[in-house]
Amino acid sequence: MFCEQCEQTASGQGCHQWGACGKGPEVNAVQDLLVYCLRGLAPVALRARQLGIPTRETDVFACEALFATMTNVNFDRKRFNRYIRDAIAIRENLKAQIQAKEPTEWSALSCYEPNFQESLVEQGQDVALQFITQSGQNVDIFSLKLTVLYGIKGVASYTFHAQELGQEDDRVYSFIHKALAALDRQNLTLEDWVKLALKVGEINLRAMELLDAGHTSTYGHPVPTVVPLNARTGKAILVSGHDIKQLEALLKQTANQGITVYTHGELLPAHGYPLLKQKYPHLYGHYGTAWQNQTKEFAKFPGAIVITTNCLMPPHETYDEKLFTIGSVGYPGINYLPETDDGTPDFAPAIAKALEMPGFTRDEEPRQVMTGFARNAVLSVADKVIEAVKGGKIRHFFLVGGCDGAKPDRNYYTELVEKVPEDCIVLTLACGKFRFFDKQLGTIGELPRLMDVGQCNDAYSAIQIALGLAKAFEVDVNQLPLSMILSWYEQKAVAVLLTLLYLGIQNIRLGPTLPAFISPNVLKLLSETYHLKPITTPDEDLAACLG
Ligand code: FS2
Ligand code: SF4
Questions:
Q1: Where does the chain hold its CATH 1.20.1270.20 domain(s)?
Q2: Which value does ipTM take for this structure?
Q3: Confidence grade of residue 404 (pLDDT, cut at 50, 70, 90)
Q4: Helix (H, G, I), strand (E, B) or coil at 240
Q5: CA 47, CA 49: separation in Å to the nearest integer?
Q6: pLDDT digits over 162-189, tens only?
Q7: Where does the pLDDT of residue 28 fall: very low under 50, low under 70, confident under 90, or very high at 90 and above?
Q8: How high does pLDDT run on average in the chain?
Q9: How many whole angstroms separate alpha carbon 168 and alpha carbon 154?
């Protein structure tokens, strides 16, 4: 087994015996085999597209399958066996359609057939080894190939969500296949791989834009919203992950059933969408914090729990019976909710479980946080922001965003936010915010000092805020009094980082550790070109940002 796609990779060098995330070597091998089959499908999908053969089903399938291989999404070997069979069937079907139009020769990769009578685990291990031996001679190219692959997984996950909301762009789908197909090419130079990695960032910006359009056109632009953190008496369902469309599907199916719906983790920003909130009054509050605390938090929740996306941890037996997964998420032995004919999950088993469970038996003491400070909300008060900056009331903005995780060195982000001087504003997004999301940082004039922009994909919104402010101040974005202090964990964060580099954002501070898949030379290139640097201590970094 070899996997180093996330921040918690063993000893900061790669998981070899067993994944620190709980992924075993067998699941890792079938994930590798699936990626290999998607790489073989990619040139076929691209040729079909050129010939005008419809590929939408293939495109969406590729996104879902890549999404399933991301950290903390799917641990179910059988699901990967099915994805692999589907990848081959889709590929052969497209090839037949292409053949009917023009005779075509395919590479060995696009003709690869797993032997379904034998262990797919061994076949996955073989192709993974082949990838390492083929690419591993040049450590920097290997590093960039992994950067492209992991970035593309992040793009695929956002693209998958966007298409659920009716937002698609052929350019994104076709680039995903192009990047997958490129992994098989032996003739690309280091410069080519750098360009390709930045292109992943460019395409991810488009994927996040599509998702933003999906959310805002369906649910309205987020508005600053108070979210209760205290439970109220009654039957309850907790929804975790990122998928707002599936949260809405659950809200529809639980309407008038006497069930209160709580968000968990990255679904907190769902409360900021006015049309969702108005339509479903039983979408009440937020329960718990970031993903790595779920084993404690889920055990205590007195209702059913639905996981729509990452980050799922191997569940404890204390709560596995009340846990339900949907979409690309899965874990062996955990309830997987079937889809109805229109592709919506049938939440009936989760609803039945919630009704059978006690729910909350008393109202808790009121506690609350705010969310909904997305691009529209912030830029609508741009004049006040400019006035406050010009009048010396706001000295600096800190974007403290990204993923959370279990490592103690992530306390850096809490300490940094606590130490941010009172004349500075903290914008935040993604699950890393749970380390400080309920801190009372007060206001500067009418502006809260802590503003939650949204989920990790709402990095798009944060980018628009930065670009909007740069325009209003008539400066380059790198000249704004703004520092980006980011935390990463999984492959969506890789895609977002590549987007920021594509936009030429300088001086990003990244932690808690740098990606294991970035070679020393690639890191040197990133630090020389973009002044990307690792976090140090809160005091040192604050002094440098404010200096
Ligand atoms: Fe957090 Fe996990 Fe949002 Fe990441 S809930 S680390 O996958 O996507 O960020
Ligand atoms: Fe290790 Fe992360 Fe890969 Fe899991 S996803 S096996 S923790 S590198």
A1: 10-218
A2: 0.97
A3: very high
A4: strand
A5: 5
A6: 999 999 999 999 999 999 999 999 899 9
A7: very high
A8: 97
A9: 16
Atom of ligand 2 nearest to the CA of 71: 5
Query: Which of 4, 18, 23 has the most ligand 2 atoms within 8 A of CB, as the residue to mutate?
Result: 23
**Residue 4 CA, closest ligand 2 atom number:** 8
Phi/psi for 532 (5° steps) reads -65, 135
pLDDT (mean) for 529-543: 98
Residues with CB under 6 A from ligand 1: 242, 265-266, 291, 310-311, 403, 430-431, 455-456, 489-490, 492
pLDDT reading at 67 higher than 80:
yes
User: Which helix (H) or strand (E) element contains residue 348?
Assistant: helix 348-356
Q: How far apart are CA 332 and CA 24, in angstroms?
A: 12
Q: Is 540 exposed, middle or buried (0-12, 13-18, 19+ CB in 10 A)?
A: exposed
Domain topology for 10-218: Substrate Binding Domain Of Dnak; Chain:A; Domain 2 (1.20.1270)
> Taking the C-alpha atoms of 280, 282, 288 and 293 in order, what is their torsion angle to the nearest 10 degrees?
-70
Q: Residue 134 — pLDDT band, cuts 50, 70, 90?
A: confident
Q: Counting ligands in written order, which one lies closest to the CA of residue 458?
A: 1
CATH architecture entry for 389-546: 3-Layer(aba) Sandwich (3.40)
Three-state helix/strand/coil letters over 224-238: CEEEECCCCCEEEEE
CA distance 127 to 124: 5
* Ligand 2 close to Cβ of residue 147 (< 6 A): no
Taking the CA atoms of residue 314, residue 319, residue 322 and residue 324 in that order, the dihedral angle to the nearest 10 degrees is: -10
Asked if the model's pLDDT at residue 345 lies above 90, the reply is yes
Would you state the pLDDT for residue 343? 87
Which tokens sit at 254? Answer: 């639980």
Report the run of H or E that residue 511 belongs to, with start and end. Answer: strand 509-511
